[in-house]
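Sample pair:
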Amino acid sequence: MEKNNALTIPGVLLSVFLIGVFLKLARSFMIPFVLALFFYFILSPVLDLLARLKIPRPLAVALIILVLFMVLYGMGVMFYESGKSLADEIPKYSQKMGAMIDSLQVQFKLNRTWDPLIALKNLNIDQVGSVILTSLGPFLSFLSNIFLVLIFLIFMLAGRGKLNEKIIDCCSPHHATQMGRVLGHIDKKVQKYLAIKTIVCIVSGLLATLILFLFGVDFAIAFGFLTFLLNYIPSIGAFIAKVLPFLVALIQFSSFWRAAWVLIVLLAVDAVMGMIIEPKMMGKGMDLSPLLIIFSLFFWGWLWGIPGMILAVPIMAIIKIVVGSFPEMRWLDSMLAK
């Protein structure tokens, strides 16, 4: 027994290493596949609804794919145009920040050679514009992979329900019923988690856009879209989504209190969504360990970059749902929880 355990541990470590290498090398294929899998779980209830309305499956799948493509394409165009506008406006913000720093030095009678302000003033903000445009490149290549995502999604939706038929053919009636029950439980819990999380992220993004519009903050659409994406990353993502518009408002208005009110309202909305509405909709048992979240962000970010960081927490949540559905793996479910 001890010899078998000694052989098992290196085998597990080797398997994890090989899986990591495969995921790293196959990122151009795996990211669209995982994204298609997420869309599959989110859109499966829509497909089931259309089936109950007696709409033929090929037509239902075509309608879902068409609507999804139009939504993703529209979001991509809006985000890209907002990013270009932000890059074009960077020189104006550079001048405003220089004037604001001069005003602070005069107002508080600071030494002109005070290191923090001098370093901030000498910061070449104009280069930020080129950085933004450069960062839009991977985003556009990601959008080009949307076609691959849609192809994966077509086959997933078209094959929905066939797995149960294969299980019935391959297993005994008792095992087929038991396995079908477990897979159905996993399917429903993953659907619920991804659907609720996506709805909360969409509402948060729309509310952030509306708030920024009402305050007159520039690039409200870009920051709203960023809020939608970053809300998939608990705590860290939500923090970044609030700080960036605060900094832009601070430079744009040259008024700390007006920018502070923008930040306060955004934080209040985020608190209501994240601490009241989302937990009430999601229910108990989906909280992940903060240490696990940080580790997964670094791990999936190393594997797949920014898309990996956005997908990291949903992936870990799905893993938690899967292991929690098997009694012999409940210990791992407890380890993944808070």
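The chain has a mean pLDDT of 76.
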